[in-house]
Design a protein that fits this description.
The chain is α+β, with helices and mostly antiparallel strands. It is 51% helix and 13% strand. It is built from 17 helices and 9 strands.
Amino acid sequence: MNLASKAGRPVYSTLEEAVEIARGLAPRLRERVAKAEELRRLPEENVADLLASGLIDLESPRRWGGPELNLDALLEVTAALAEGCSATGWVYALWGAHVWLVAQFPMHIQQMVFEDPNSLVSSVVNTVGAPEKVEGGYRWTGKGFFSSGVDHCNWLIAAIDLNCNQPPPAQPDRRWFLLRREDFTIIDDWHTVGLRGSGSKTIEVKDVFIPEDRCVTAKELSEGTGIGAREHGGPLYCAAMDFTFSLPLAGPQLGIAKNVLHSFEERCRTRLTGGNWRLAAEQSATLERLAKAGAQIASARALLLEDARKFCFMPAAEATLLDRFQCRRDVAYATQLCRQASNSLFEAAGGSNIYERSDMQRLWRDSNAAGAHHGLMWDIHGLTYGRVSVGLPPVELAQAL
């Protein structure tokens, strides 16, 4: 690790260094969980910790002073942070992944974002409203939903299908637009069961002009022919967006499930050493759940890291259609495996854990909220992989035929 990065923040040369720092932050984040839940966004102290630690820059290109570590590092760091605070892990995973996306824009746009050491980039993937093509760019009036961490960002990336109003068989023409903070307003509608501290609010845009150079096409990023691949050249920026954007979503669930596991272990330990023979006698089935949950979480982690080290070091041109849907399948499967582990342990945790002051019930809420994300749902991504594996078109293409 060295101190040659933005504003004197550390640059990590290895995954292990970054994870060690993240684990060191986790206890401080845990102390602020109640504050995050009350605010319905991250506390400013959490944001300051993430920036000061240099962890936000994990995937930042070397050209801009970053370490350019790969997705395995982002996954491990995200899980470590989520062990302290689920919402912080969730927002961090997205902010970290957006660094990769910013590095796919024209170089002068990258410089504009990266030269500010405190830049944070949120996003909206689910949007309404079709931009109008005008001279020099686009004008957009619309909304975007579930923008995690948006209260703290100074940039926002919006995914929009330009031909969203055209009926089949028109193929999607997805673009990623980079907006300044002053281009949109935040609608304070984040009143949720889980991940309350993530502040994943709705944004609204009214007739905003977005220059052409603040727009990139999803097709280029999927094929590895974008600016990042040409200008930065490292394995991370030559990988397909199908991998670099799906894998980070599973990192928070790993940390949440590990937190549930640790809480449950402590509960069992207290009961078994508390002198109550009747409670101790009831624990045999419970301990089997504990063992199974630990194996599920470890299996999910191994699957995700295997995919990260395979697909995110693979040039996009070498990735097959099946590879792309396998990654999405595995991300959904690993996420739901962790969710099952958390739910199983909560079921056996006892009545004392239904109180609002209980960490266990909060983690249970967070796990199920995270698992409901479209990109993590097994019914969707399991079906799509199954179709592609037997030679059928993906669901979205089949609907257009």
